[in-house]
Amino acid sequence: MKNRSTTAQSTRAMRRRGPAGIIALAAVATFAAVAPATAAKQPRQAAEAVAPRVAGEPIMAIVSIKSQQVTFYDADGWILRAPVSTGTTGRETPAGVFAVIEKDKDHHSTMYDDAWMPNMQRITWNGIALHGGPLPGYAASHGCVRMPFGFAENLFEKTYIGMRVIISPDDAVPTEFSHPSLFMPKREAMAAAPSRADKLSVEAEEATRAADEAKKAASAAAKEAASLPAALRKLDQQKARADAELAFADKSLANAKTDQARAKAEELKQKAATKAADAATQLDAAKAAAQPKRDAAAATKEAAKAAATRKADVVKAATDAKLALEPVSVYISRATQKLYVRRNTHKPAPDGGGEVFDTSIEVPVTIRNPDLPLGTHIFTAMAKTDMGLRWSVVTIENGDGARNALDRITIPQEVLDRIAPTALPRSSIIISDEPLSSETNYRTEFVAVLSNQPQGGFITRKPTAPAMIASDDGWDNGGNGFFFFQQRDPYVQPVNPRRQRGQYQYYQSTQPMQRNWW
Length: 518
What we know:
Helix content: 25-40%
Oligomer: single chain
């Protein structure tokens, strides 16, 4: 009844406005008639689904932009599936390789008028994330991946920092894969790894304590040695005054005219001589004592240097041993012809937000026929086997086939010796034509986007500030080992691409952001 009354009132109003009102009413009626037909053209939205088995820990999530769907996988296959809404035209969600880097149960946007983004799981620091949101049945976000509210809430406690997120322009699934270049851990190294990490941790604490004590001793000795010149100078001046007084007494005695004057001058001379002798003795003693103090300062300085060197060596070994207990991720870029390694230290970032990833390995890599495309392939260790690890591959950009791409890569032996013997499930090797995005920093695993796909979701987002990179000494004893570091790789992928005449041009947008649903 209310609707009919409202419609009648609107019709009367249109009549009062004359022909213009009638035309507007006709337009509304036409739109209402067309809307169902338009809705019918929208792709059928994927339904939420749960695998009919007990699910394990999720290893990766694959978002299909084409199908507007996300699927989560454990070691044995898919476990959860849901429809999504990715970035709309002009604000497209970037396709590429990411990982969860921060989680916030009740997140509110700092970009879009405090918009609610519940159960947010961030994958870039410039604002791309998975979170709960409205799903109209098509791509409608500002670059994030919206999931059903309930699905996002149920998923939130199951994921973890570092979980792989793959955003594919098309449908992609992990396929079982084997290749001699994939890490094969050594059983003996795996068995020894926990006890070795504990042993080296104790040694690192002892070495750190010894280095601190040696540093304090060297500082005290240096402080004492530093005071020697002033003390010697004071004694030397004291001796000079005593010698001057003695000379004056000698002159007074020589000039005395009476017996009384000579007696008085003789008494003054004896006192001056005694004073001069005492001053000379003190100066000689101080000079004799100064050299051992100088020698002690030099010796404690060298001891402190040796202790610091031992601390650095032991701490590095302890850090490597601790990292060996974590899954390892390797990124190989044809663009930079470099190999990068990341492992999560699980230490909170010192400037707030996320966790610190170890970045200490970055080396050149040999790629056969480097002018030919490799594609983008993500190889993931899914589970342990009697022989080592069971691997899968996900390809999101075809260049060369996954097997051929691996055949063309030669990983340096020293890198393999350092990370392969203790490789764990969830370890990965990513091969891509792309450089790492400039959004990759010490608080991320890897961020790499496909440059031949729309990336509008990056264009309106402010790039992350120059990264503060974790140093090699990331041990918790005696300093947290961080320093500000400008981007060290000159070939990182710029963050804000915009396609122009078939190529991407990079710039920071100055246009105001749309204030609406995110």
